[in-house]
Each structure stands twice: as C-alpha cells, then as structure tokens.
Design brief:
single chain, about 240 residues, alpha+beta, Beta-Lactamase, Arc Repressor Mutant, subunit A, 2 domains, 11 helices, about 50% helix
C-alpha cells in the first residue's frame, strides 16, 4: 500500500478505512475522522460541473454545515473566483484559505463582504479543500472549515493525499450505483492511459498533481485487479471489460 503523504499510523489507518468504504454513509463516517485529525468542525462534499448552475444545496452529497449557512450562501450568490495565491498553497490537488484572503475583493464588492461576515458568523474563518475531476466532466469537491491556525505544508500534503483517495473512492461508488463495472477507479484508468501514451511517471504525477509513488501504486493496483503484470495486457483487458468506453 502506498503510504507516501501519510505522516503516521493514524493517517495510514485512515487510508485503509477510505479504501474499504462501501457506501456514502461510510464515507461520512470517515470524513468525521478526517475532521478530528485536522481539527476542523465542518465539511461539505459536493459535485459540480465546470460551469455550475443552481444553488449550493443542489450539488451537496454530504455535509454537516448548518442549514442557515447554506441558505445564507445561496442567498448571497456564492463565492467569486479565489485569489491566485490560494491555489499556490499545495503542489497537489488541495488548497487552503483564510477569510482574510477575501479582504481585497471585499473592498469593492458588497457580496464578498457579506460572505466574509457569514463565514465568521458560523466559525468558518479557516478552510481547506480538494477537488478531483470525474470521467463524466464533473468535479467532486471536499471542503473542510473551522477556527484553527493555517495547516503546515506537511499537514496540507497529508490532507491532499487522504482527500484525493476519498474522492476517488466516491467516484468508484457512483459507478457502482450506476450499474457500471466496479473495482477500478477513475484515477487508475487515467494513470494507465497516460502510461500507455508514453508519459513517464514524473510527467503523470505532475499532470495529476500526485506523487510519483502514488502513480506507481495506482498502475500496479490496476494491473493486479486485471490479473496481469504487463501494461499492454492491462490495456487490452480494461478495454474488453468496458472501462475505456
């Protein structure tokens, strides 16, 4: 099992729990363990397309955020594009922010000022989130919120590692509910296709914002599931089973 990005035994135990999840309710139970580990109070797990429509409530899959916050968020009209420096906080697929990051925008926008007040009112001045594209053009997004100091880089990397595995597991469960082939995740297929196209491990890791060890683990895991240790055989079998459609 790939343990890179997991700082200690507790993190490894969480990774095992994530990989064993079989339902949305079990994902919720694991998320509460993640909240405790990183000392956040609230979370949102939702799915959206690149140009989302409708309210936040329309996209939510799981959350423990107070309904009053969701109502207020939708009434205000949502959050504008985040400052670029928020997106520079991690070399993976997770980012963190503080409500003060919105202060510059708030000077010229009553909407942003209202959002800052709403976040502070509900004890959500600090947050982090991870996003993972799905094969059908959506994004699964996992956000955590609370009142704590900023995550260290090591903590942010660990949050990223665990969150991406959580979101990848969610995508696998969604395929199962839709009656599609299961057991192979979207990330595993993505790594397989890029490897077959001639990209080396470092290039795939950069493209997917993963560690090289994670990429090797995902390709090896997929090959084992398909009963082969050869890439060309794995591609043939994945195509035969309909994973590449």
């Amino acid at each position: 099992m790939d343990g890179e990005g997991v700082a200690d035994g507790g993190g490894r135990e969480l990774l095992v729990r994530i990989q064993a999840v079989e339902s949305l309710s079990e994902i919720g139970a694991v998320i509460h363990l993640l909240l405790r580990r990183f000392r956040f109070d609230y979370f949102k797990l939702f799915a959206a397309r690149s140009a989302p429509t409708g309210s936040l409530r329309d996209h939510l899959l799981l959350t423990n955020v107070p309904p009053a916050f969701i109502d207020g968020f939708d009434t205000i009209g949502g959050l504008p594009a985040a400052p670029v420096r928020i997106f520079a906080t991690s070399d993976r697929l997770a980012y963190q922010w503080h409500v003060s990051d919105l202060s510059v925008k708030a000077q010229g926008s009553a909407q942003v000022g209202q959002l800052m007040a709403l976040l502070e009112e509900h004890g959500m001045s600090q947050g982090a989130y991870a996003a993972l594209p799905t094969l059908d053009g959506r994004k699964h997004i996992f956000g955590v919120y609370g009142e704590r100091e900023a995550l260290t880089q090591a903590d942010l990397d660990e949050f990223s590692f665990l969150s991406i595995h959580l979101l990848d597991r969610l995508a696998t469960l969604e395929k199962r509910r839709a009656g599609q082939q299961t057991g192979i995740s979207g990330l595993e297929i993505e790594c397989l296709l890029m490897t077959a196209a001639g990209h080396d491990t470092a290039a795939i890791a950069r493209r997917l914002s993963l560690s090289t060890r994670t990429v090797n683990y995902l390709v090896g895991s997929l090959c084992r599931k398909l009963g082969t240790d050869r890439l060309e055989h794995a591609l043939t079998e994945a195509a035969r089973l309909g994973y590449l459609d």
